[in-house]
Design goal:
single chain; alpha/beta; Rossmann fold; 2 domains; six-stranded parallel β-sheet
Length: 384
Amino acid sequence: MGDDLPLRIAFLSIGRHLHTERWIRWFAERGDDCHLLTVQPGPIEGVTVHDIRRGGPTKALRYWRSLGAVRKILDRVQPDLLNTHFLTGYGYWGDFSGFHPNILTVWGDDVYVTPHENPLKGWLARRALRHAEFVTGDSADILSACVGLGTSPQRCYEVLWGVDFQAFRPDRPQEVRQRLGIGGDDVVLFSPRSFTQPYYNIDVIIRAVKEVVDRRSDVHVVFAGYEGDQRPFQQQARDAGLTERTHFVGRIPHAEFGAYLAACDVFISVPSVDATAVSLLEAMSCARAIVVSDLPSSTEWITDGESGRVVKARDARALARVLMELTHDPALRTLLGAGALAVARRYAGFDQNMARVGALVDACLEDFCNPPEDLPHLLRNGEV
């Protein structure tokens, strides 16, 4: 249907967020009439943005009034389909709006963490998942978690956030090293995870790289965070004696992120809770040597010793041992990077994954009571 006539699609999602903007712009660029309903409004080229923020003396009242705004906007816009992003908050609005068909896209801690915080949040999550026509998520593991919360596996589809292979490639120029004063032969470790949540384990990375830097004078460490305050971690690094060769660069614009990946030798992502991180897929696409924690959402992509190294979350000693191994062995870094690149090239393309969403949207509009028979639930073999 989407190939013949433009659709009118409403999106409930986090505004001013890269994932939201890339996702919606794909539909806008294929010619669909796209409307974003959000409490973080900001301009998106080719998209009509609706501010659903409403005032009130309590959070519950503000939320209820925003739900009223969602219902009114959907009634006025009359979209063909609603695509709700993020199970917590936006997922509740999408569910209680009563609009169908509704495709629910889950992100991460909205499934792994929030529904288990108290019975009310668990009930809201289960209700939203149960009422959505289809659910998409970026790993088999997060979809399994959705099934554990009560959704049907036949209605779950794996869709990655996807990588632009033109922007993220192994041969990108390395101007970042010169900017940071890092020599061309030095070894660079790179941790780009958020500073907001303790489960990203930045403290563990600091303890591990302390051991590496103490033993080698040619190792630099770059910390970046797309959200949160880096100052507490800067203090931890100073307390550990990590100063001269440790670089905190704050938030990196996505347009520059590929340059930072090209400048690093080892990419580190060792959270205790996570879905498939798009930064991981981007690092794979740049053929970097990668170290991840042993989460299912990471080990779906990284096989230890073939496409990266895997350590247990919060095991600083194990992480230090692996980092020492990688800093000493450039041939191993090259081997692991090549393995990661091959996997990324096969599965992680942005257009490839968004085409899956487009096919799901079109199938949903044809018959949202029945899952499409010709669209695989997972990108690779496996069971949800």
